[in-house]
Amino acid sequence: MVQSKNIGIKLLDFFIYSNLLISVACFLFTLQTALAFHASETAAAFFGITNFIATFSLYNLQRIYQSTKPYTDHRLAWYQRNKKYLFTLILLFISLYYSVFINNYIVFKNGLLLYLPAVALSVVYFLPPFALRRMPVSKIFLIGGVWAYTSVFIPLLYNDSVFSFSNIGLHETSYILAQLCFIAAICVPFDIRDFENDRQNSIKTLPVQFGLGKSKTIGIVVLLTYIFLAQNTTQFAVFGITGFLGILLIYFSYEHKHRYYFSVLVDGLIILQFVLYILLTRN
Q1: Which of 27, 32, 36, 226 suits a disulfide with 48, CB 3.0-4.6 Å?
Q2: Residue (of 279, 200, 267) closest to 19 by Cα position
Q3: How many CB atoms are closer than 10 A to CB 255?
Q4: Is residue 162 classed as helix, strand or coil in its secondary structure?
Q5: Model pLDDT for residues 4-60, shown as the tens digit of each residue
Q6: CB 137 within 8 Å of CB 206
Q7: pLDDT single digits (tens) 71-121
């Protein structure tokens, strides 16, 4: 019984640490865009798969890169131990994606061209000499901006696979900004978790710059903005419930919470938002 429990914990840890959970969440986050606005479901599926591959690859490459440097974060040791499995999965996913890319490149060429700056930004986010994650305070908004750009803005440019900037109106703009606020806000608990490591490495996140209390306040205000922006969408109930739960998770965050608090509960809010959308708005 104990052995089965240990195997279950190891599998859950692999699902979390390998970034499979957050990659699935990114896929659903993208799919929700098409379902909410009757955008091209083909485009949402294509960019959802693209976002899954990009999230899995870039998040893991960042962690593996960080684990090659002197570190104080014990979690990075996991990436050193498992990097061969992660590289194998990255190559497997990319090889499976190749045929999807070839079959859809012509249709979604314009969107893919717009996608490239986000990929470049995600790379220089952690690689020197830029290492944008070290820019004071900007970290959560960079992450929120990239997620909203790749998972919401670009898919909304397609209606029945026809690319047009005219597809973006007031409701779409409110939705894009709301989702940017949502992702940015739920980054705050992770910055609280990493407070000591970031402080030692001179990474000026919100908690390092302003303290834990003010950081929570900023995160809560950003989530309230997320709920406010939902007034111009059809998902006010969805955003309201998700936002309220997010506020609670930010308020009760502290540095030494159990790892599943952040990786399951906080990241799980993205998946919960999708599930709530299906339950509350789809007939």
Answers
A1: 27
A2: 267
A3: 12
A4: strand
A5: 667 888 899 999 999 999 999 999 999 999 888 877 788 889 999 999 999 999 999
A6: yes
A7: 767 789 999 999 999 999 999 999 999 999 999 999 999 999 999 999 999
**CA nearest to 158, candidates 116, 110, 113, 119:** 110
Q: What DSSP character marks residue 166? A: G
Q: Residues of 1-24 as b/e, b for ≥16 C-beta within 10 angstroms?
A: eeeeeeeeeeeeeeebbbbbbbbb
Beta bridge partners of 163: 158
For residue 125, how many other CB atoms are within 10 A of its CB?
19
Number of separate domains in the chain = 1
Q: How many residues does the chain have?
A: 283
Residue 229's region, left for phi above 0, alpha for psi from -120 to 50, else beta, is: alpha
Of 47, 66, 52, 46, nearest in space to 19 by CA:
52
The token duo for 152 is 């919401």
- Which pair of structure tokens corresponds to residue 218? 């900023």
User: Two tokens at 67?
Assistant: 């684990």
Rounded distance, CA 9 to CA 166, Å? 48
User: Distance (Å, rounded) from C-alpha 212 to C-alpha 214?
Assistant: 6
Q: Which residue has the tokens 């499979």?
A: 20
Whether the model clears a pTM of 0.90, i.e. scores above it, the answer is: yes
Residue-number span of the structural domain to which 39 is assigned: 2-281
State how far the Cα of 61 lies from the Cα of 197, in Å rounded to an integer. 19
Annotate 83-101 with three-state secondary structure: HHHHHHHHHHHHHHHHHHH
Contacts of 253 (CB under 8 A, 6+ apart): 188, 189, 192, 193, 216, 261, 262, 266
Quote the tokens at residue 176. Answer: 């894009």
